[in-house]
Write a structure and sequence with these properties.
Number of domains: 1
Strand content: 15-25%
Distance between the termini: 19 Å
Radius of gyration: 15 Å
Largest sheet: 2 strands, antiparallel
Order of helices and strands: HEEH
Number of helices: 2
């Protein structure tokens, strides 16, 4: 369990460091991402991005455990 938590932490740090690069190629502005802007209120729901990342992580973990 500790090994998986360490790996998960490293992946989160890597994703955080790579996020500016990923935004430049379009990740974070996919169809399905919802942005609501009001006078002093901004709400961003990255549904399309979440689905894409979930599918990618599922495939990677499936390949590792295979």
């Amino acid at each position: 369990m500790a090994r998986w938590l360490i790996i998960f932490g490293i992946v989160l740090v890597a994703a955080g460091l790579l996020w500016p690069v990923l935004q430049k190629i379009g990740l974070g502005r996919l169809p399905g991402d919802i942005l609501v802007e009001r006078d002093n209120f901004v709400r961003y729901l990255p549904l399309g991005t979440s689905l894409l990342l979930s599918a990618a992580i599922t495939v990677i973990l499936w390949l590792i455990n295979r």
